[in-house]
Amino acid sequence: MSLRYLLDTNIVSHIMQGRDITLLHKLSTVSVGSVGISSVTLAELEYGWHRKGKPERLKHSLIQVLLRVDVLPWDDTVARCFGELRSAWEAKGISLDALDMMIAAHAVAVGATLVSRDKAFGQVPDRLAVEVW
């Protein structure tokens, strides 16, 4: 099975909270191996966990998510895609936060649909497929 969906940090945070039944149901309908996260997302989640004083509940929730998704490395192919997209989108007057831009480029580079609830991705006109779960 190939990767179809790349989960944004905000989606993983909702999964970790475990209260959004609709989101958890949607995730359960997707094939194993077709969902991943960027290593950039993992970095954001690790930062959030440490910033909150490393509560055991968050650590356990993050471990549970990582057991079910692939963590994709941010490599030279993604870096090249990032440079191209950021330049093209800025030329159109579109600007994203640096980490959001990195995650968006990762989704485009691997040909995955980005799953996010971040409205900033709604302004991106081309190449990035986005779904809201």
Please tell me about this protein's structure.
The protein is α/β, with parallel strands linked by helices. Helices cover 53% and strands 11% of the residues. The protein has a single domain (5-131), classed as 5'-nuclease (Rossmann fold, 3-Layer(aba) Sandwich), CATH 3.40.50. It has six helices and five strands. A five-stranded parallel β-sheet has the order 3-2-1-4-5. The mean pLDDT is 94.
N/C terminus separation? 21 Å
Chain oligomer state: single chain
Q: Based on the structure given, which CATH architecture is correct?
A: 3-Layer(aba) Sandwich
CATH class: Alpha Beta
CATH H level: which superfamily?
5'-nuclease
The number of helical runs is 6
CATH topology: Rossmann fold
Fold topology:
Elements: E1 5-7, H1 9-17, H2 21-28, E2 35-38, H3 39-51, H4 56-66, E3 70-72, H5 76-91, H6 98-110, E4 113-115, E5 130-131
Parallel strand pairs: 1-2, 1-4, 2-3, 4-5
List keywords for this structure.
133 residues; alpha/beta; Rossmann fold; 5-stranded parallel beta sheet; 53% helix
Task: Explain briefly what this protein structure is.
With 133 residues, the protein is of the alpha/beta class. The chain is 53% helix and 11% strand.
